[in-house]
Design a protein that fits this description.
- The strands form three sheets. The protein has a four-stranded antiparallel beta sheet, with no helix packed on it.
- By secondary structure, it is an all-beta fold.
- The chain is globular and about 50 Å long.
- The chain is built from no helices and ten strands.
Length: 141
């Protein structure tokens, strides 16, 4: 099969802050914010990182005042996908983990870490363990 060539942008529509996961020979991209189907975190699928197909939004919006859905990242471990994301209203943000009912549409929150905004940039590392409960929290100065 010839190598696909590309010209940026490879997806000629809004798709901010993308995260791309390779799984079973396909690429899955997730973006920040609301998607065209009124769900959070738009998903695209590609066989080659050049040709992309819209799949839909990954997550139904949460009840309450949560206008900001940012920075999705998906990992796969032990047969389960985990969607890590930040949600809130820019003053009070939470780090959440959604566990999918299917690969394409994570729908339930498995863990939550709440953070009060103290600066525009909060260095943080979030990692999973078998218990899905080990977090590295931001340093306070």
């Amino acid at each position: 099969m010839p190598t696909a060539t590309y010209l940026n942008p490879v997806y000629n529509h809004s798709f901010p802050d993308p995260f791309v996961l390779k799984f079973c020979g396909e690429y899955w991209a997730y973006c920040t914010g609301m998607w065209t189907d009124d769900r959070c975190f738009g998903i695209l699928r590609s066989p080659d990182l050049v040709h992309w197909t819209k799949v839909g939004g990954a997550l139904a919006p949460l009840p309450g005042d949560h206008p900001c859905y940012w920075a999705p990242e998906v990992s796969y471990w032990n047969g389960t996908f985990y969607l890590y994301y930040s949600v809130g209203n820019e003053t009070f943000m939470q780090i959440r983990v959604a566990v999918p009912t299917t690969r394409l549409a994570p729908s339930s929150t498995a863990a939550t870490v709440s953070l009060q905004k103290t600066s525009p940039s909060i260095p943080m590392s979030l990692r999973t363990t078998t218990a899905l409960a080990t977090y590295s929290m931001p340093q306070t100065t």
